[in-house]
Amino acid sequence: MFFHDLKYFILSQLKTKNLIFWLLLFPIALGCFFRIAFGEIYGNLTQTGPIPVAVVEEKDNPVFRSVLESMKGLEEQFLDPVDLDEATALERLKNNTVEGILYVNDKLRLTVAEDGLEETMLKKFVETYTLRETILTDAALTHPEKMEAAAAALSKDCHSVASVSVTTGNTNNFTQYFYNLIAMTALYGSLLGMQICFNNQANLSALGARKSCSPISKAVSLAADLTGAVLLQFLCMAVCVTFLVFVLKIDLGNRLPLVYLAACLGGMTGVSIGFFVGSIGTAGQRVRTGICNAVVLLFCFFSGLMVGNMKALVARFVPWLNEINPAAVISDSIYCLNLYSDYRRFGEKLAAMLLISLLFCILGIIMTRRKQYADI
Amino acid sequence: MENTVIKIENLVKRYGDLIALDHFSLAIREGEIFGLLGPNGSGKTTTINCMLSLLAFDKGNIEIFGQKMTPVSYDIKKQIGIIMQDVAVFNELTVYENIDYFCGLYITDKAERKRCVMEAVEFTGLGEFLKFYPKKLSGGLLRRLNIACGIAHKPRLIILDEPTIAVDPQSRNKILEGIQKLNRMGATIVYTSHYMEEVEQICTRIAIMDKGKKIAEGTKDELKRMIKNTETITVEVLGLSEAVRNEIIQLPHVYRTEYDGERLTVFCSGGTHNLIRVLDVFRTHEIRVGRVYSELPTLNDVFLEITGKELRDRKGDSHVLS
Questions:
Q1: How far apart are CA A55 and CA A309, in angstroms?
Q2: What's the predicted TM-score (pTM) here?
Q3: Which CATH architecture has domain A49-165?
Q4: Which chain B residue shows the shortest CA-CA distance from A13?
Q5: Which of A165-179, B158-172, B275-289 has the highest mean predicted lDDT (pLDDT)?
């Protein structure tokens, strides 16, 4: 009975035009649109290179100069410094030809125009340099003969900002639109989840009533349909990620199997949300589909699908929202995979997705488990 | 003594302050085609939904095949075929897939299921449409698909809830013939409708419902015997005098007349040759008449006499009730 129900759930959903559109065609079309819209910028930004930075020397600082010189000789250059006066530096910062201005005085100061990965790396560089400079100053006072070796060590440390902070993954801002696109596709799985309720609840559809009269138990029926919905959503997510990576050539990092895993778990989250939304109240299918679409788009809006820096704004003003917004959790999981070399944050995001899925599934089952209705 | 298939005792169902079923009792025997007749909102579908344990009810008891019916009475459900008022099929599955899906909820053996599906297809005449999707079917074919999905597993008890709504007369006749055939094959049928002609045509016993109550029960002849009227004679005649009308009402078995200036209606109770006697009066007075009708009482007359209102809404579609 389970496999019979599963087979026909999958078969019927595979032929549902609405689902094919929202789960396959729409993400592919939107992906193509993003690729065309960001194509040139994206191409430029995926190439990693030294960060252009203006150096305004307010006071002679031989230690810093020595660090800069030693970094120039490295194989992978981290900084592309250019000596400028303050007015020119500010002008260049304004028109984005440099990412920041380093004011060289007794202490090193940094001015940046916006938040971003390059700016974060510059801040980290300044922090590291300041810390090491203190150590170097002490060394100069106590062991002046080792000054040259200490300076070399300092430059190496500062350069390590680049190699330690980032992985080989793609961290450019435009890729985040594609992370959000994956999150949106995953959450459109809610349409599949909602269908489970329509197929099983007698007070929602004639089909649900008809099925409730048959000798299949509700538990078996729900289990079969949930399995079918999750399997279908896995398929849709796999198609979406494959299309982005292999057709649109979007760089989703070098840990692709984990990207697939995150996308599939995200899809499961989407299905569970739909299952929960479908189980509440007695509104019709069109109303619920509208609600689901609106909820998905709202989640995606706060995750940054429509406005690039939305997630940063949310992180600044309502940071907890990013922790519970399923779209943000899904896109962050892939982002973490590309940004951090370890798996801690990625694991946390996967755990959050599992938790959300479990929560909504349990709530959905509680709402749909009844077998008799007060009104049909 | 015939076996009782469905036994409903004192069923009460409330929707807030509205009483949908008011101490409703019923016993349906094996092999019957039992008709539940009543206008929309009389409680027919509510009764069916309670029978199937879809609806929770406030009071009463329902037994099917001698066992108390509950939502988890899967053994009982296996023996029931249900044809819902609203067509309940997957729009994304073909005719064959739909029948196979519903049949598969009852029969797990693939070979047996395939045989049952093909028999249901043959029975409902859907052989040419196996690969069609429901949206491509006409209203009549869609209803037949709905029926095929409900009967493919060869149930002992078949419940049809208004299966002929929005169906053309030709398809309707086929459906009614099919129901009688299923009954001859051994199935007990519960048939709800507000089309009295259908119920009169196929049902062996009928319960008439109104406002959640059973107002009458019996065979169609028994029901008709419950009312005073046995014949209604209508005569198209202009300028009929009061004296002639008085003469007609004095005739044996005539208990009432109505005249609207164009048409005289004569109500008779019992007796034979009433029409001849009425026409004799016109001949005696040399009054020319137009068309003449003589009608035997219908279930609508039964309903009208018991409740004081018509079963069928004459203002709208001839098949639609208020």
A1: 28
A2: 0.76
A3: 3-Layer(aba) Sandwich (3.40)
A4: B92
A5: B275-289
